[in-house]
Recover the amino acids of this structure.
């Protein structure tokens, strides 16, 4: 929500020149890709900057703007000093130019939080609530016992602690979405008259989605799932409380709650809780249908197809992927249609239908080759060439063409940005599995060792552990091959009970 003190950023508006906000946003995203950043810039973000609602961009945007306008400082771009926005001086802390993954988008010093920033898989968005006194935040230090949070900046540690809050009240749940105590939240509990849901609450729901995706990118799902259920409950409480809300706010709230359900469903999926995931995806689909939101419906069907394939319900996976393609037909996103075609290809492969798989793969490659567009959903930031390659690898693996699968998995692992630790570990686990079955035990063992390195570091994913356990089972009879015994011994020592 705009601050009453917002001052239009005329300098930034001058830099946009004659381009429309959407055209300028596309230039920002292109510049981000050139330096390896991923930001969710759209016309709305540009409008918020120009209106003065975003007084200082987060660090990802700062790097992108620095690339676009060499030699210009944030002040030259019309932004306020970071420490002034964050109220850092009052806390006696010195900003670090190298601190990653935080945002000052919002109205610093008043507990406000910005909802825009980078996103999804590959996001660089974090919360920036300025309230650092709530002792409930200290519970986040137990979020990942094996994590290496000590390597993060002090600021990011604060940001992460604010991401999820334990507690049973609606107020605490609302705070876990990033905007602190919610005016009227107690009414959700007591039945008192409810206040109107506004843009700040909706923005916080959207921010929670981005935060969950960011943490999943970096660490995997296992340590996140139960914490993420808290903001999900809060989001649907807001949706219920805002039943009389109309217009764009209502649409954003429904979309945000649905996307949050999908994000939490994915955490359940990746951590082996398939029934929980099915429930969350169904909740998102119902929300999409009630709201008439085709984009959310397509996303829900996309994840439902993936889940059905993993659960061995391949015909359901085909139907869900095809339903997603129908829902997304008018959205104008070739990349979304490409991903849904890959979901369909994987389902046909699971059924052993090579012809059906090849048709869907061909369609996916054609659509992907048309390139990204402004119509691509924000959540699809993870879907690039590496993901396309690994999804094709999974198809050939399901069809028993191990050597071909290994070639695609190898491409995925080579192309993947190491910053996305969870996805890189997944691609390597896929490669190790395919190499093991393609009669390359030494190479499979070496790749398995690299996956173990990730699992002993910051990555937690039951899905990846299960894949690696399967590789170890396949390599068991080949213990005498170079490197295999060492891998098997290390895997056995590191093995932990899988949560299902």
């Amino acid at each position: 929500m705009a601050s009453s003190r917002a001052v239009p950023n005329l300098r930034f508006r001058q830099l946009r020149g004659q381009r429309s906000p959407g055209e300028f946003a596309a230039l920002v995203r292109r510049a981000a890709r050139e330096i390896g950043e991923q930001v969710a810039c759209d016309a709305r973000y540009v409008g918020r900057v120009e209106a003065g609602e975003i007084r200082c961009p987060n660090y990802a945007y700062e790097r992108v703007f620095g690339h676009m306008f060499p030699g210009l400082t944030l002040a030259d771009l019309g932004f306020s000093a970071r420490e002034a926005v964050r109220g850092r001086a009052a806390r006696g802390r010195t900003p670090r130019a190298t601190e990653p993954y935080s945002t000052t988008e919002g109205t610093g010093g008043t507990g406000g939080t910005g909802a825009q920033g980078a996103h999804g898989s590959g996001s660089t968005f974090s919360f920036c609530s300025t309230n650092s006194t709530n002792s409930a935040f200290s519970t986040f230090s137990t979020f990942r016992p094996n994590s290496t949070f000590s390597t993060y900046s002090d600021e990011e540690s604060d940001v992460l602690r604010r991401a999820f809050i334990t507690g049973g009240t609606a107020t605490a749940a609302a705070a876990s979405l990033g905007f602190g105590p919610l005016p009227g939240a107690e009414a959700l509990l007591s039945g008192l008259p409810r206040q109107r849901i506004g843009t700040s609450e909706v923005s916080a729901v959207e921010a929670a989605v981005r935060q969950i995706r960011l943490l999943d990118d970096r660490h995997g799902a296992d340590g996140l799932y139960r914490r993420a259920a808290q903001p999900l409950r809060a989001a649907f409480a807001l949706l219920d409380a805002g039943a009389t809300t109309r217009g764009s706010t209502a649409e954003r709230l429904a979309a945000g709650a649905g996307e949050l359900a999908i994000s939490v469903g994915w955490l359940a999926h990746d951590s082996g809780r398939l029934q929980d995931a099915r429930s969350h995806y169904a909740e998102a689909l119902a929300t999409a249908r009630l709201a008439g939101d085709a984009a959310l419906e397509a996303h829900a069907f996309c994840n439902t197809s993936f889940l059905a394939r993993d659960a061995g319900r391949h015909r359901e996976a085909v139907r869900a992927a095809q339903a997603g393609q129908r829902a997304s037909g008018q959205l104008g996103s070739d990349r979304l249609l490409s991903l849904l075609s890959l979901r369909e290809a994987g389902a046909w492969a699971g059924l052993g239908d090579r012809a059906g798989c090849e048709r869907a793969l061909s369609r996916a490659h054609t659509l992907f080759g048309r390139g990204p567009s402004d119509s691509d959903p924000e959540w699809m930031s993870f879907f690039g060439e590496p993901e396309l390659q690994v999804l094709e690898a999974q198809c050939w693996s399901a069809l028993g063409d191990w050597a071909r699968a290994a070639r695609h998995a190898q491409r995925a692992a080579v192309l993947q940005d190491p910053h996305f630790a969870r996805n890189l570990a997944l691609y390597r686990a896929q490669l190790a599995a395919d190499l093991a079955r393609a009669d390359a035990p030494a190479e499979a063992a070496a790749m398995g060792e690299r996956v173990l390195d990730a699992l002993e570091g910051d990555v937690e994913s039951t899905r990846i552990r299960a894949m690696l356990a399967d590789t170890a089972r396949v390599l068991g009879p080949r213990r005498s091959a170079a490197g295999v015994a060492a891998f098997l011994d290390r895997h056995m020592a590191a093995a932990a009970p899988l949560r299902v």
